[in-house]
Each structure stands twice: as structure tokens, then as C-alpha cells.
Specification:
Strand content: 5-15%
Shape: globular
Structural class: alpha/beta
Number of strands: 9
Length: 327
């Protein structure tokens, strides 16, 4: 990994990882304003070898208010091709035009621009494509490198593993002698970034070679339903960070058991326990004893309420073992 990589940066990048690990550790924090500014000055190349600054995609007179920037791996990556093909079938130009906020989608790869026509045809992608052969843009925005496949098959992967691998291999072979190795760094992974009004409001960085954001998640961000979920997640994290307890089902179950135990011990609602307590108190307060023709009053020490409760609880749990188990 290059010295200038931001992969160890806390704000947006991922820590150093084993390139062959199944999944690498990254975060999905949006890049800072300084990082986005630095990235914005970097050049990207279109299919005609024209160079423009990255920021021109999301700022300036010809830009939309909101831009989805999709970073793919090398141009022969079968997983990225499947992902982009399925994404373009769901997120169409007409769909983007129907959104209340003007939105556009652009694709950036890490290979040479000569592969763009091939890639656009292979993926049936109608959106603009650009290249960052140096991968500097990837690094500044916190994307890293890995060869791991991950532990889970993504929803978008409609083809079996062997089909993906063979097709990718054959595409590479077809370009032998025509710069096949310039299709991009095979270990570089990408991600998805949503830029609105010149600021990254949501992003997803790949943890393995097929870990693109699910298409439903991208659409949720675009139509607004994902923003509400993101706010709830951020609120829960904020409470956790500030020391406010955020309980799950397990914690709630423990609290319920403690409450039940308290209720049974106090004898406030359990009728069986109440009757036992009443009889114990009555028996402990009576002290009649009869002698030979003469009545004597025997002073028997009265048991404390705590002792009565413990004795009654023992009798109740002997009759109903479920109470002992729950308590």
C-alpha cells in the first residue's frame, strides 16, 4: 500500500489490512471537507481521453444537485460487471429523472480509458464513465485493496462463482497483446458515494472484491427512505457514546426476570404467596398453651417479616417449581 494512502485515517479510510483476508476492515464515514477538496482537484479521464477534475462531476454549472459516484474494480472484474448490469436495470435514467432532487450517476474505474467502450457495452450501462488509472482518488477517499471474496454472497450476484471467474479470465485473454494488464489493479476495490450540494452525505466502501452496496440500499438513499434509517442508527450510536443505555432483547429479558423476582418476593401480586404470608403471621402471633387445669400464656418470639417471607417463599416454590426457576 502506498505511503500516501488514507486507509489508516480515522475519518474516512480503513486501517491496514491483510490483502488476502476474506474481508478487510473499513468504515463508511464520509470523507472530510479537506479530503473531498483534495480529491476534487485530481484528474479523471473520459472515453475520449479528455481530462477533467473530479469535482466537476458534482459542482459547477453542468452538475446536478446530487451525484452518485460508483467506483468499480478493474474492468475485467465479473462481480462489478454483474453489479453494474443489475444496478442499471433498476436505477435507470428515467428513475433518476423522477426523483424530487435532480440526481445523476457516474462510474469511475481504475483502468485505462480505452476499456470504457467495452465496459459500457458489457454492462449495458447508459451512464457516463471515467477512469483514474493512478487510483489516487480511490486512496484519498478511503478505498483500499484486497483479493478476498468475503464470507457472504451478495444479493446482486446472479451468476455462480465459476461462471464469473471463467468469463473474467476469457475477457482478459481476449485483450492479450492489447494492454490487458492496463485494465486496472486487480486488488483495488471501490465503493459508492452520494454527493449532495458539494458534500458527501452517504458512502459505502467495499470490504472485499464483491462487497458493493446492495442495489436496494442505494435506491433507499436516493428516494429518502434510507436517510431515516441512517438517522435512527446515528441516534442510537450517539446515545451509546454518551452513556445512555441502548438495550436489546437480551437486556430486556433480564430486566423482566428481575422485575418478576421483585414482585414475587414482595408478595404484592402473587395470591398464593400472600396467603402463605398471612397464615405465617397469624401462626407466629398466636401463643396459646394449656396446662393441667390452668391456662398459661407462652411468650413465643415473633418472627420478623423478612423471615416470614423467606419461609413462605420456600413453601411456595416447593408447590410451584416454576417460580424458583424464573427467580
Amino acid at each position: 500500500m502506498s505511503k500516501g494512502s488514507t486507509s489508516s485515517r480515522k475519518t474516512s479510510g480503513a486501517p491496514a489490512n491483510n490483502i488476502c483476508a476474506a474481508e478487510i476492515k473499513v468504515n463508511n464515514n464520509p470523507p472530510s471537507a479537506a479530503e473531498l477538496k483534495k480529491a476534487g482537484d485530481l484528474p479523471i479521464i473520459d472515453k475520449d481521453n479528455n481530462t477533467i477534475p473530479f469535482r466537476s462531476l458534482y459542482s459547477g454549472e453542468d452538475s446536478s444537485r446530487r451525484t452518485v459516484v460508483l467506483f468499480v474494480r478493474h474492468f475485467f472484474c465479473g462481480y462489478c460487471q454483474i453489479y453494474l448490469r443489475n444496478l442499471c436495470a433498476s436505477i435507470t435514467p428515467s428513475y433518476l429523472a423522477s426523483l424530487p432532487t435532480p440526481t445523476k450517476l457516474v462510474i469511475i474505474g481504475c483502468g485505462e480509458p480505452k476499456f470504457i467502450p467495452f465496459y459500457a457495452k458489457e454492462t449495458n450501462c447508459p451512464f457516463p464513465m471515467y477512469c483514474d488509472p493512478t487510483a489516487k482518488l480511490y486512496r484519498i477517499l478511503g478505498m483500499t485493496r484486497t483479493l478476498g471474496l468475503g464470507n457472504h454472497r451478495p444479493k446482486y450476484q446472479t451468476d455462480p462463482f465459476i461462471t464469473v471467474v471463467v468469463k473474467s479470465f476469457l475477457q482478459g485473454v481476449s485483450y492479450l497483446g492489447r494492454g490487458a494488464l492496463s485494465a486496472g489493479d486487480y486488488s483495488q476495490v471501490g465503493g459508492e458515494f452520494l454527493v449532495e450540494d458539494g458534500k458527501v452525505v452517504w458512502c459505502h466502501r467495499m470490504r472485499n472484491t464483491r462487497d458493493h452496496a446492495e442495489i436496494d440500499d442505494v435506491m433507499a438513499q436516493l428516494d429518502g427512505s434510507g436517510a431515516a434509517a441512517a438517522d435512527e442508527t446515528a441516534d442510537a450510536q450517539s446515545k451509546k457514546d454518551s452513556g445512555v443505555e441502548v438495550r436489546g432483547d437480551e437486556a430486556g429479558e433480564r430486566e423482566l426476570k428481575q422485575q418478576r423476582r421483585k414482585t414475587w418476593t414482595m408478595g404484592l401480586t402473587d395470591s398464593s404467596l400472600g396467603r402463605r404470608l398471612s397464615r405465617r403471621r397469624q401462626s407466629s402471633s398466636r401463643s396459646p398453651a394449656r396446662g393441667s387445669g390452668k391456662e398459661e400464656r407462652l411468650l413465643t418470639p415473633r418472627k420478623s417479616d423478612e423471615e416470614v417471607k423467606k419461609t413462605a417463599m420456600k413453601d411456595v416454590t416447593e408447590e410451584d417449581p416454576a417460580l424458583a426457576t424464573s427467580s
